[in-house]
Amino acid sequence: MEIIPFDKRIGFIWYNGEFVEWQNATTHVLNHGLHYASCVFEGLRVYGEKIFKLEEHTDRLFHSAERMGMIIPYSKEELNFAQEETIKKMNIKYGYVRPVAWRGSEMMAVSAQKNKINVAVATWEWPSYFSKEDRLKGIALQTAIWRRPSPDTIPTDAKAAGLYMICTLSKHEAEKNGYSDALMLDYKGRVSESTGSNIFFVMNGEIHTPIPDCFLNGITRKTVIDLAKSQNINVVEREIYPDEIKNADEIFLTGSAVEVTPVGKIDDQTFNVGDITKSISELYMKTVDPNYAD
């Protein structure tokens, strides 16, 4: 199937308070967000024409902007309305929503005190992040050489563009070597997450997951923890080191894009897609999608 480049698609994007035609939603090459990564964003899923956890995502977007010293020139209510109107305008039933805010091109230097904060919302139909085959057998991860930075070096609790460059580098290297994604360690050598998803390990009937002290405490992560607890599955948030991975019975990733995706391999270690992972995945899909069928 031919993939249409994102700048060649048709439709409408909400851009600074109004809808513009998709291919006209442009910005100048000298904008600050491009050169200095002063840009924050969110990623939301649409199920049955309804955006899942809309308010929580918007809250996080505003938190990210605040951490980056950016004041979004719209209220949360206005931006929630814009996202809902955008999926209606684009007739999205099952898809993805990308709100983004960035500094413009009024000043071109490290300091950008007078730059306008631009805001846009785009949405498109988007099936599962990984193929059905990958999800059935579990995806393969390669441990990355790049590490999540210390929280005293950068605002690691923000969903900010600059934080994702090490993810792109790591994912490209993993894909080059035949893996689906990369496993990121943190600045202390602890397991942190994949390039864009949180990670969970099933060990002796319990679910263990890293403490999100230098990476995002994902909205899907929190949803899955609540779902697991509702099934009387004990969830342990703790420091996890790479030499413990071999003790896992099952491993899975969570995120708005990947939803709940099993992991079948990390480097040269293989894992089964087990009952707890299948159960959590099924429960998650029933929670997010009103039309989900087994």
How does the major sheet shape up? 9 strands, mixed
Find the CATH superfamily of the largest domain: D-amino Acid Aminotransferase, subunit A, domain 2
Helical content stands at 25-40%
CATH class of the largest domain: Alpha Beta
Q: Distance between termini?
A: 27 Å
Individual helix count: 7
By CATH, the topology of the largest domain is D-amino Acid Aminotransferase, Chain A, domain 2
What order do the SSEs take from the amino end to the carboxyl end, as H and E?
A: EEHEEEHHEEHEHEEEEHEEEEH
Kindly give the count of domains: 2
**Strand proportion:** 25-35%
Describe the structure.
This protein has 294 residues and is of the alpha+beta class. It folds into two domains: 6-125, Aminotransferase class 4, branched-chain amino acid transferase, N-terminal domain (D-amino Acid Aminotransferase, Chain A, domain 1, 2-Layer Sandwich), CATH 3.30.470.10; 132-288, D-amino Acid Aminotransferase, subunit A, domain 2 (D-amino Acid Aminotransferase, Chain A, domain 2, Alpha-Beta Barrel). It is 26% helix and 29% strand. It is built from seven helices and 16 strands. The protein has helices at 32-36, 54-67, 76-89, 132-137, 165-176, 219-230, 275-288, and strands spanning 12-15, 18-21, 39-41, 44-47, 50-51, 95-103, 117-125, 139-148, 181-186, 191-194, 198-203, 206-210, 235-238, 250-255, 259-266, 269-270. The strands form two sheets. Strands 8, 9, 10, 11, 12, 13, 14, 15 and 16 form a nine-stranded mixed β-sheet that branches. Strands 1, 2, 3, 4, 5, 6 and 7 form a seven-stranded antiparallel β-sheet that branches. It is globular, with a radius of gyration of 19 Å. The two termini are 27 Å apart. 39% of the residues are buried. The mean pLDDT is 95.
